[in-house]
Structures are given as C-alpha cells and as structure tokens.
Specification:
Oligomer: single chain
Number of domains: 2
Shape: globular
Strand order of the largest sheet: 3-2-1-4-5-6-11
CATH architecture of the largest domain: 3-Layer(aba) Sandwich
Radius of gyration: 21 Å
Bound molecules: nicotinamide-adenine-dinucleotide
Largest sheet: 7 strands, parallel
Number of strands: 11
Length: 406
C-alpha cells in the first residue's frame, strides 16, 4: 500500500523545481539523485539543533528509525516524500546545548543523556560525527530547577559559553540549511540570540517553542529581508492536546453548539513540565495554547471561561503527557451538554512527527527562494503562527504548498 500522501509525483515536482531563481537561496538546491535503494530524492536537508532535549532525541531517533524503511512500511508520518525529501534525507550537521552531560558528546549519544527521559524507539543511532557544542545559556536554565535531583534537571556546563560570532561561524561551517529551536519554554533571550545567529549565518529557522519570532512582524520582516524562511511558533504536536481541543472546538462551531466553558489541564514528568513550574516563564506558552483554541471558536470565549495550560509536574510520568479536557456547551433549546476527554501521549515523538515536516517545508521554501514567514505550513504545524486558520484549511494549503501550487 502506498503511503496516503505518497502521490507518486516526485518526478513532476522535481521538474517543476529544477530551475532556480538567480541570486536567491534557490541556488542552494541539490541536484536530484537516485540513491542505492532506488527511492528518488532531491538531496539532503541539513539541520542545526539548539537544545538537545527530548524533542531533539525523538527527532534524531526518527531519522535512523525511518532510514531503512520505505513508503510502504513507514507508519507515524504525515508525509513520506515531502517535495522530494524523505525522512532520512534530514541530516544533523550541528547542535548546541549547555548541559554538562551533553556538551562535547556525539549527537547520537547526547540524545540519550539525562535528564532526557523520552521513549527509546530506536536505540541504535549511528554516530553522526557531530559533537554538541557549548551554546550561550542566557535565560535557558531556570533557577528553580536547582531544587530538583540531578537526573531530572538541567546542569549547566562550566565550559566557556560561545559568543554569537562562534555560533555564526559554526552554523556557516556546518553548511546547515535550517536551525531548529528546541529550547525550554521561557527562553526569550536565548531564542532571540540564536535567531539572530541564524539571520547572520544565512540559515532558515524552524521555531518549535512559544517565543514569538515568526509571529513577530518585525522578526519575520528581518528574515524576509535576509532572504530566509522562518516557520513558527510553538510546534503543534501530531495528535496532542492542542489539535484535539481545536478539532472539538471546531466541531461545536459547525454543529451550532455554543461553547461556554472549557479547560485543558496537562500533566507530565519531563524537563519541559519541570521548567514550566516556574510560572513566570509561562506567559507566551499560555498565550500560544489559549489562542490556538480561541481562534477556531465560533465566538471568543470570555477569559474567565477558558483555561488552557500546563498544570503540574508528575516526575514518574517522565515523557508521558496526560491531558484532561472538559468542554461545556448549549445544544438546541439552550439545553446543556458537556464532554470530558483524557488523552495520553508520549510528548516528544508527538512533536517530532510534526517537526520533521516543518523542517522539510523550510527547506522547500529555501529551494524556491521564498523568504519571511511561510504561512501555510506555519498554520498547520504551529500553535502560534502569524496567521491562524482552521486546521482543514491549513492542511489543504500546506498540501498545495508542498506541491508548489500555493
Ligand atoms: N513535546 C511537544 O509536543 C512540544 C510541543 C510544543 C512545544 N514544545 C517545546 O519544545 C521545546 C523543547 O522541548 P523538550 O521536551 O525537548 O525540552 P527539554 O527540556 O527536554 O530540552 C531542552 C534542552 O535545551 C537545553 N538548553 C537549555 N538552555 C539552553 C541554551 N541557552 N542553549 C542551548 N541549549 C539549551 C537543555 O539543556 C535541554 O537539553 C520546549 O520549549 C517545549 O515546550 C514541545
């Protein structure tokens, strides 16, 4: 059985994009090749990662997990072939972290170091030859973590922190196409710092965290002026609390049921949840998660009637996230109804299933000489895109974008 989104049009797509726009990033496009396994590819997508935590672990494991698969036996992906790029065409060429257990290690080892605790679905990740470099700490490590056991928290390395010039040089030397940001929630300064480095180095950005870069018009304009795509902000997991809450909210709207009150409470035991115990880091996360739901409601829900957010840290859950969702509405004749739902997912593979597509879309945008915020994939893959649309529309536009029709 072909993969549901395997259109068999890879060749057509390649012909369509075999040209380049002179003087643009389109010049970076690799020639089409046919590898030993016979599957057509248009080249590699070289990524740099900031924050080698659980999400990075799942993503990097996935690159090996799918390496010896084909469209017939690959499950868990939205796209096998995305514009000619297969999952295994994504290649890590640089990585930055600040934790003493990760800095200096090969990426294939660093992803399994504590405090990472996500499911190991591919234990045999070959050496990448890429060592995790010391980054710049800034506001990446929250002080409250010091009160928790070493195995559960970040421990800053005592290596000298990298300067912006060193990170820019490392990005340039690595040949990275796309920088993928997986820093902890609340890393406002650190995210801006790495985004500036991407701009300077001439690298596209996929911003998986709720610090507003793609959805900040000034930042997006700077990426556009530099001829670089940016896709963000805050990854919308494959089948997580946000997409489920949005779909149900949209269902209420379509079926004429007035949504009056709702909450989404989430618990988990990874460092993401530990980090979010520091409520002062949560402002943008709360905005991102709440607006993702508000934006598909028939009419705006009063602030006191919607509560969406991380709710507690339960260490034994590790990377398992549990979401408790309640929605209260009024049916025909103003008769009340409610729905309660419990969703249990492994948090980080859930994000990797989307970041692998966001990354490939960023590369497609580079190939095509597109710059600034790339709206269609941002609306589909991110909780806080520059433009919110329904998920149906975002899906359709993203498929159009991938085909080159958008
Ligand atoms: N899992 C999901 O479904 C999901 C969804 C949306 C957003 N996110 C966001 O993605 C981000 C990553 O999540 P995660 O679970 O991998 O987090 P994590 O806590 O496992 O990893 C964060 C990593 O960043 C490193 N780090 C801290 N400060 C740094 C700095 N200044 N420079 C470089 N590295 C630094 C830490 O050492 C750690 O390795 C979080 O912001 C999370 O909220 C995740």
């Amino acid at each position: 059985m072909p993969h549901p989104t395997q259109s068999g049009q890879g060749l057509i797509r390649k012909q369509r994009y075999a040209w380049r726009i002179p003087g643009t990033r389109g010049e970076r496009r690799h020639p089409a090749t046919v590898p030993a396994d016979g599957q057509e590819t248009v080249g590699k997508v070289k990524i740099a990662i900031t924050g080698v935590g659980n999400c990075a672990s799942s993503l990097v494991q996935g690159l090996s997990y799918y390496a010896d698969k084909g469209p017939e036996d690959a499950t868990g992906l939205m796209h096998w072939d995305l514009g000619g790029y297969r999952p295994q065409d994504v290649q890590v060429v640089a990585a930055f972290d600040v934790d003493l257990r990760k800095v200096g290690k090969d990426v294939s080892e660093a992803i399994f170091e504590k405090p990472n605790c996500t499911a190991v679905f591919c234990s045999q990740v070959p050496k990448t030859g890429v060592r995790v470099r010391m980054g710049r700490i800034l506001d990446g490590v929250s002080e409250h973590m010091a009160a928790y056991p070493d195995d559960r928290r970040f421990i800053a390395s005592d290596q000298e922190e990298a300067s912006a010039e060193e990170i820019v040089a490392a990005l340039r030397e690595s040949g990275a196409d796309v920088l993928v940001n997986f820093l902890p929630v609340g890393s406002e300064q650190a995210t801006r710092f790495y985004a500036e480095c991407a701009l300077e180095a001439g690298v596209a950005l996929v911003n998986c965290i709720p610090v507003f870069i793609a959805s900040d018009p000034e930042f997006a304009a700077r990426f556009e002026a530099r001829g670089l795509p940016v896709i963000g902000d805050d990854i919308k997991a494959q089948l997580g609390a946000t997409i489920t809450h949005r779909m149900l909210t949209d269902l209420f709207r379509r079926r004429g049921v007035a949504l009056e009150r709702t909450y989404q409470l989430n618990t988990g035991g990874n460092t993401d949840f530990l980090n979010m115990l520091n409520r002062s880091r949560l402002e943008s996360k709360k905005e991102s998660k709440t607006e993702a739901v508000q934006s598909v409601a028939a009419s705006r829900i009063a602030d006191e009637n919607i509560h969406v957010g991380p709710s507690d840290y339960v260490p034994w859950q590790n990377d398992n996230k549990v979401c408790f969702l309640r929605m209260e509405g009024k049916l025909f004749g103003d008769v009340p109804m409610n729905i309660e739902l419990r969703l249990s997912v492994e948090d980080s593979p859930n994000s990797a299933g989307v970041s692998i597509d966001a990354i490939r879309c960023a590369k497609l945008a580079l190939d095509r000489g597109l710059a600034g915020a790339i709206h269609a994939p941002a609306s589909y893959f991110m909780k806080h895109p520059p433009v919110q649309t329904s998920d149906d529309e975002a899906f359709q536009r993203t498929e159009d974008f991938i085909r080159g029709d958008g």
